[in-house]
Amino acid sequence: MYVDRLKGLIRQSLFLLQATGKFSIHKGNETHLNIVRAPTKQNTVTMNARHVREHLEVSIGKMLTNLEGGEITQENALGKFSCSVEDHDQYIILKRDFETYDGEMAIPFSRQQPSLQMIFSINGQSSFNRSSSPFILSPKSHSLSFFNRFECKNLLQKGTRQQDITFGLSKSFYANFVANYLGVYDRLSSLIMQEQEFNTINEHIAIDAAIEGILNNILSCPFQGEMKSVFMREHIRALLALQFFHFNQVVGDRSISFDTRITKRDHDTLHDIKDYIDQNFLVPSSIEMLSKRFGINEFKLKHGFKVLFDTSPMRYLQYRRLTFSRSLLSDTDKTIKEIAHEVGYAHPANFTIAFTKTFGNGPLSFRGKV
């Protein structure tokens, strides 16, 4: 009877174990009971969310890289995501409208062919990261850049929206356009025709009424077929003409025939400087101090840093400080005045202006975000 009661207790225990997890019994000289807990509901939800995010990042990244005509539209717990590509003969039109509810995303994509990129922010800021360098296009602004090739990530912060439209122009399109303007905007045209890279995302300019009107016409184009192609082509040319006007001063002042080669020693030194800034961004720094500390002249420092990381040492230092201030806003109860002082701003107003220009929203909008 004792044995029967013991067997009953064992069967009852095994039944309870089966209900809460997986188990196995191995026979031998001794009986071993191995219990594998079933995944909790929270862990399952976390794994599913991660899988959905990774799948979405890969899908959108593939579309941004291949630039084949098509559209992705999806809404889930992470947010709303819409991405479409129109592949025309001499240009592509890329539309992005991403709105995140929960969590951050980093969508990897690349280009392997030379392209003139016109980016227009419609709503929210557009954030990218290339070779650890941040590029941020503020809301209602535009940029003009030329890339031979690149790899980067489209960054999406929690609770934000990115809506923009990009026109990628082939060489046949911009060469024909430049031929008509060469001599008027000769320096900018020469940069493009010599296929020398330049990037104005961090030097973006606000969208004016003329550009806004052309964009509205493009986004509400009433035509189809060949008429649409003609309509789009002429409007893109008009946009490009306005961008040449705006960015000729920004880009045209740069040297055209500079030597971008960097010695291995300088290359290693510049990376050491970047690492130093990453680890000591709250320490007061200047070009003169960095130059003396690392034994590199100021010209090589500024020029080489720009070539390697597409930004200046001081701009990168400011970005690291402002990124840190964003975490202080979300994770601490410090006042804006205290945070401004901690990241090197004597006056909170100057901190607010720099913060808003960098992230598209003022410091208060990040207060309490996790």
From TrEMBL:
InterPro entries (UniProt xref): Homeodomain-like_sf, HTH_AraC, PchR_regulatory_protein
SMART domains registered for this protein in UniProt: HTH_ARAC
Keywords tagged on the record: Transcription, Transcription regulation
Name used for this protein in its record: HTH araC/xylS-type domain-containing protein
Domain of life of the native organism: Bacteria
Pfam families for this protein: HTH_18
Residue ranges of every copy of the HTH araC/xylS-type domain listed in the record: 271-369
